[in-house]
Amino acid sequence: MTTTHKDPILVVVQLTGANDYMNTIVPYNNPIYYDNRTTVNIPADQVLPIDGDFGFNPVMEPLKGLYDQGNMAIINGIGYPEPNRSHFRSMDIWHTAEPVKIATEGWLGKVVRDLDPKAENVLTAVNYGRGLPRALALTGVPVASVGALEGYGVMSGIADQQHRTDALEVFARMYSPAIGTGPTMDYLGRTGLDALKGADILRTAPEKYQSTVEYADTPISQNMKGIAQVLLAELGTRIFYTQQGGYDTHSNQVPIQPMLLGDLSRGIADFFADIQAHDASDNVLMFVFTEFGRRVLDNGSGTDHGSGGMAMAFGDQVKGGMHSEYPSLKPEHLLEGDLLFNIDFRGIYGTLIERWLGLDAVPIVGGNYEQVAFV
């Protein structure tokens, strides 16, 4: 649990496509790594060393800076029993914290419900990206999904203000009668009215924002800038969510993954530089995850779907360093050719829920799981 006087804020970043764990945190002193990665390995003399055994991908220098400051935690060996190597099913499992049955209620949706049980603030959760991630989906929980903050709003394309006002009144009347006419219509009605209430509030955030940080013109950096804008506008948002895609590197991994990790590293570093310059970083924690790792043996051009993976956490309150054990690469310790997880991802969620947000994790993740003291 944070000791800051301000409400804790959680930023979640999803790396879609299954980021290659072993080429992110590289076991550069292990010959088994080079025996298996004859094509896609990171040469030992290029790695940014963490210690004598592990190091960062060389494009991650901005994040190594945060690591050296003690503001980055690397959480090793994450997974769940009987891992599923389908992107869609595995991501559903991460989104719902339910590895066995098919579930629809998002873990972060439950978090938002517990943070704001009366749904008093329609901006308690903001997603940057098209659509709503299942992690945030829960009936009765409002979430604003933003493509681009500038110009964001309901019917913002109508230039004439009076015409737009008239159209918004029609929009409001269209949704208002739906309240109380059945569960589905009730949900649609609340969703429509929440969008109406939240849209124009969010549009004010860029007007209040000034910064000397120059974010890169990449999707992930621009999403980070948008998160900073809303966070610094102090609209009461507690949960932010965004994604970076492209990590399904079955082929051409050597050029693709470093480009993505480089963009991610700069975006995260710029975000924290921005909010630190505004004296607004002490109650912010960022959690970065992916649906699974990739196989130990490369396929000649890239890597295929694996199981055990890793996550990262950033923030002033993070206990920096390597957490949990990096899985063994020895053949007898692998799971069907994959790294074997040693910490259940629901324990990582539990750590965030209880130690950072101050909520009860059991009903959200469905039980008690080993937590990791990265916060």
Explain this structure to me?
The protein is an alpha/beta fold. The protein has one domain (9-151, 193-365): Alkaline Phosphatase, subunit A, CATH 3.40.720. Helix content is 34%, strand content 14%. The chain has helices at residues 31-36, 61-68, 87-96, 107-115, 161-175, 183-203, 205-208, 219-232, 253-277, 345-356, 362-365; strands spanning 9-15, 25-26, 48-49, 55-56, 72-79, 125-128, 144-146, 239-244, 284-290, 309-314, 321-323, 343-344. The strands form two sheets. Strands 1, 5, 6, 7, 8, 9, 10, 11 and 12 form a nine-stranded mixed beta sheet that branches. Strands 2-4-3 form a three-stranded antiparallel beta sheet, with no helix packed on it. Strand 3 and strand 4 form a beta hairpin. Helix 2 (61-68) packs across helix 9 (253-277). The N and C termini lie close together (8 Å).
Main attributes of the structure:
single chain; 375 residues; Alkaline Phosphatase, subunit A; 12 strands
Short description:
With 375 residues, this protein is an alpha/beta fold.
The portion of residues forming beta strands comes to 5-15%
Known CATH architecture: 3-Layer(aba) Sandwich
- From the structure provided, what is the oligomeric state, counting identical versus distinct chains? single chain
Q: Kindly, what is the distance between the CA atoms of the first and last residues, rounded to a whole number of angstroms?
A: 8 Å
Helix content: 25-40%
Shape field: globular
What is the mean predicted local confidence, pLDDT? 89
List the total number of helices.
11
Q: Structural class of the helices, strands and pairings?
A: alpha/beta
SSE string, helix = H, strand = E? EEHEEHEHHEEHHHHEHEEEEHH
Main β sheet profile: 9 strands, mixed
